[in-house]
């Protein structure tokens, strides 16, 4: 209840005092080149305003966007082993063990510290839906999804490996042989995804979303931005047409022009991003810097790969969709024809 | 305690939007914009800022810092005098993309001006400060009847100010929304006046590139003149990459202000801008005015071209706009003079 002396100010100042106690760095005077602003969000339970870094809602004192600790039991069956990713694009990732079957899984928690818009929840749930439709040995298998205490969770196959972007950061550029060793696997995965009915377009292929296990299997992960052709979706252009989807998640420098200029997707959209990712891995320089605007193509050194492979890569990253390979199968055919695989 | 959501049940809201979109499929041919659904108001998330004086967190919307009691925001009222010279008439935009905008009168010359204010409350980051200063520098070098004249730039009590000529009129995007699509004659009038401005910008050495050309950045005055506004994103053209740190560098370094649908592919895919990038934006704007359809919905990905709806414009104008909208820079006209030449040849301009 607000006190009679300061009817309006009281609740706000109490909140910030709490905040200051929790964060001792705030009590120090700070230089004028200011730190990023604290964001205030709605509590998912009582809709009161709460600072994003507050562990509790000051109004209803429920725990907010809880970072789970090792040993905690979720949904009555998933025991947390370890926090793997603290700030992913979509949230936190944990290693968990299903206490019913004693199997290890990966658990993804939708972050709510950025504020949960209906679109975020929809996308997160769509990731679960799309993953549950995919049964492929190199796509993490969907296991379970649930919502608990205002947080949303997705449980899927645990992949033990490093992403190719981590490999790139640690080791440097890849050789052509190394790229060709895993490329058929990714093409196979994409051929499967695009061959589903309706086709699934990943839309965010990049080195960070390709996970390589110790045995050399390369998984395609993070379907949070994936989409399916849907003829009934508003704005869809029918069976032959591309899907129009206004989701604005794309990775700078790796997204295809049709996503940027028209917000439409084709199977060749994934091949474009795959081609750019391969160029990125081979040259170790970001595609943003390789784009030659005059000619509308990507320029990179002849030394990083053989001329035959370069020609195939260049066709994969052509700007108009019709100038690209139309399917992953066509890319594989071209690689075979050049006796690269 | 503020209640940030006037609509407590977000699922219900989402359902309402979905139902409305299903009931009116024609309205949303080019994608769903929830703001166009009646009864839906976008709810901005309340923010906490740090007080400029004591660095403690302050809830946005509160007038004074809860700790030191100093005013968190210098919002001037009508009649206030700023810098001993500018008399505030009116608050035009409370929080634009870049601060607050006032209508002011210069008491020394009695000129009617616009004052842009970048508040310390808005957390003047080094990047914002640089952009704001660059806008002042670029505008002070420009003298053209189609560009608001620069008057003054100063820093006062931690806030940055830019004073420019006031134009009484409406933005072209507002005109489009209120009056519907432009006739070809109206669009050509706009096109020709805009080309004038781009010829002038291109005549600088090095040429000046605006980088955010869209109908919302053009203003039509009462007497029918068009003005190009908002040079906050403008740059001087360099033939090399705009940012040397492209390779593996931190991507936060990039100035990332663009408008989807009007930005040229090289801006999005390579972070480089050419004079013809502005012409791409101009052609997309003209296409937008002629068809009243968002360019995003007109892009035909298979061939990499833009589709013109039937009866948009004459085939001669369509050919010129299509060439301006080419994906490759080398396929486009190199500068505004070439476009004007082409329009003259097609007898679209005298």
Would you give an account of this structure?
Chain A is α+β, with helices and mostly antiparallel strands and 341 residues long. Chain A contains nine helices and 17 strands. In chain A, the strands form six sheets. In chain A, strands 3-4-5-6-8-7 form a six-stranded antiparallel β-sheet, with helices on one face. A three-stranded antiparallel β-sheet of chain A has the order 9-11-12. In chain A, strands 1-2 form a two-stranded antiparallel ribbon. In chain A, a hairpin with a 4-residue loop joins strand 11 (210-213) and strand 12. Chain A is globular. Residues 1-17, 22-37 and 230-247 of chain A have low confidence and may be disordered. Helix content of chain B is 28%, strand content 19%. The longest helix of chain B is centred in the middle third of the chain and has 19 residues, at 184-202. With 350 residues, chain B is α+β, with helices and mostly antiparallel strands. Chain B contains eight helices and 15 strands. Chain B has helices spanning 10-23, 126-140, 172-179, 184-202, 265-269, 275-291, 315-324, 336-345; strands at residues 48-50, 57-59, 81-82, 86-96, 99-106, 112-118, 150-156, 159-165, 169-171, 208-209, 218-221, 226-228, 235-236, 299-300, 305-306. In chain B, strand 1 (48-50) and strand 2 form a beta hairpin. The interface between A and B is large, with 64 and 70 residues.
Which pair of chains forms the biggest interface, and how many residues does each contribute?
A-B, 64 and 70 residues
Range of helix content of chain A: 25-40%
Largest sheet of chain B: 6 strands, antiparallel
The stretches of 5 or more residues of chain B where confidence is low (pLDDT under 50) are 1-8, 238-255
Instruction: Give the structural class of chain A.
Output: alpha+beta
SSE class of chain B: alpha+beta
Number of helices of chain B: 8
Number of strands of chain B: 15
Q: In which range does the helix fraction of chain B lie?
A: 25-40%
Share in β-strands of chain A: 15-25%
Could you say which overall geometry of chain A the principal axes of the C-alpha atoms support?
A: globular
- The protein's oligomeric status is heterodimer
For the terminal residues of chain A, how far apart are their CA atoms? 73 Å
**Widest beta sheet: strand line-up of chain B:** 3-4-5-6-8-7
The geometry of chain B reads as globular
Compressed to H and E, one letter per element, the order of chain A equals HEEEEEEHEEEHHEEEEEHEHHEEHH
């Amino acid at each position: 209840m607000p006190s009679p002396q300061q009817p309006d100010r009281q609740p706000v100042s109490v909140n910030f005092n709490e905040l200051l106690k929790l964060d001792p760095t705030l009590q120090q005077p700070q230089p004028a080149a200011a730190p990023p602003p604290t964001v205030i969000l709605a509590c998912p339970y009582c809709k009161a305003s709460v600072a994003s870094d507050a562990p509790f809602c000051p109004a209803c004192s429920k725990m907010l966007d809880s970072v789970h600790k090792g040993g905690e039991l979720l949904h009555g069956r998933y025991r947390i082993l370890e926090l793997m990713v603290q700030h992913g694009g979509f949230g936190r990732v944990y290693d968990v063990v299903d206490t019913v079957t004693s199997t290890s899984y990966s658990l993804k928690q939708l972050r709510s510290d950025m504020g949960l818009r209906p679109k975020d929840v929809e996308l997160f749930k769509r990731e679960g839906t799309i993953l549950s439709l995919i049964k492929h040995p190199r796509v993490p298998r969907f296991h379970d999804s649930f919502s608990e205490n205002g947080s949303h969770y997705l449980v899927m196959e645990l992949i033990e490996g490093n992403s190719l972007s981590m490999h790139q950061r640690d080791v440097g550029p890849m050789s052509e042989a190394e790229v060709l060793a895993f490329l058929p696997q990714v093409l196979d995965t994409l051929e499967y995804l695009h061959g589903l009915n309706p086709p699934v377009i990943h839309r965010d292929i990049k080195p960070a979303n390709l996970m390589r296990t110790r045995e050399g299997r390369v998984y395609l992960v993070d379907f949070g931005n994936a989409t399916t052709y849907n003829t009934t979706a508003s704005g869809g252009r029918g069976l032959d047409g591309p899907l129009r989807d206004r989701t604005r998640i794309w990775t700078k420098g790796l997204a295809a022009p049709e996503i940027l200029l028209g917000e439409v997707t084709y199977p060749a959209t994934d091949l474009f991003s795959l081609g750019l990712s391969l160029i990125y891995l081979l040259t170790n320089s970001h595609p943003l810097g390789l784009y030659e605007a005059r000619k509308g193509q990507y320029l990179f050194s002849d030394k990083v790969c053989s001329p035959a492979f370069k020609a195939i890569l260049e066709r994969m990253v052509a700007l108009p969709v019709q100038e690209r390979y139309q399917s992953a199968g066509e890319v594989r055919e071209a690689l075979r024809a050049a006796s690269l695989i | 305690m503020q209640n940030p959501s006037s609509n407590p049940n977000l699922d219900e809201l989402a359902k309402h939007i979905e139902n409305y979109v299903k009931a009116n499929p024609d309205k949303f041919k080019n994608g769903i914009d929830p703001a166009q659904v009646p009864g839906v108001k976008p709810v901005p998330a309340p923010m906490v800022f740090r007080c400029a004086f004591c660095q403690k967190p302050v809830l946005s919307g509160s007038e004074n810092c809860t700790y030191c009691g100093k005013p968190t925001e210098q919002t001037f009222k009508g009649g206030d005098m700023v810098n001993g010279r500018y008399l505030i008439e009116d608050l035009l935009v409370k929080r634009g993309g870049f601060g607050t905008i006032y209508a002011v009168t210069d008491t020394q010359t009695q000129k009617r001006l616009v004052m842009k204010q970048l508040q310390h409350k808005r957390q003047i980051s080094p990047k914002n400060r640089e952009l704001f200063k660059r806008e002042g520098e670029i505008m002070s070098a420009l003298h053209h009847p189609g560009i608001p004249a620069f008057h003054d730039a100063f820093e006062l009590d931690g806030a940055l100010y830019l004073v420019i000529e006031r134009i009484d009129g409406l933005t072209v995007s507002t005109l489009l929304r209120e009056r519907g699509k432009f006739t070809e004659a109206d669009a050509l009038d706009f096109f020709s006046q805009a080309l004038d401005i781009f010829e002038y910008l291109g005549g600088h050495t090095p040429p000046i590139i605006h980088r955010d050309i869209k109908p919302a950045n053009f203003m039509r005055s009462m007497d029918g003149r068009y003005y190009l506004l908002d040079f906050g994103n403008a740059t001087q053209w360099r033939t090399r990459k705009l940012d040397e740190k492209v390779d593996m560098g931190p991507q936060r370094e990039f100035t990332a202000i663009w408008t989807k649908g009007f930005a040229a592919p090289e801006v999005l895919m390579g972070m480089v801008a050419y004079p013809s990038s502005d012409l791409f934006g101009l052609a997309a704007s003209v296409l937008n005015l002629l068809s009243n359809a968002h360019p995003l919905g007109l892009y035909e990905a298979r061939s990499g071209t833009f589709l013109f709806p039937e009866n948009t414009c004459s085939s001669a104008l369509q050919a010129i706009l299509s060439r301006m909208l080419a994906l490759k820079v080398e396929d486009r006209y190199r500068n505004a003079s070439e476009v004007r030449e082409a329009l003259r040849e097609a007898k679209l301009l005298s």
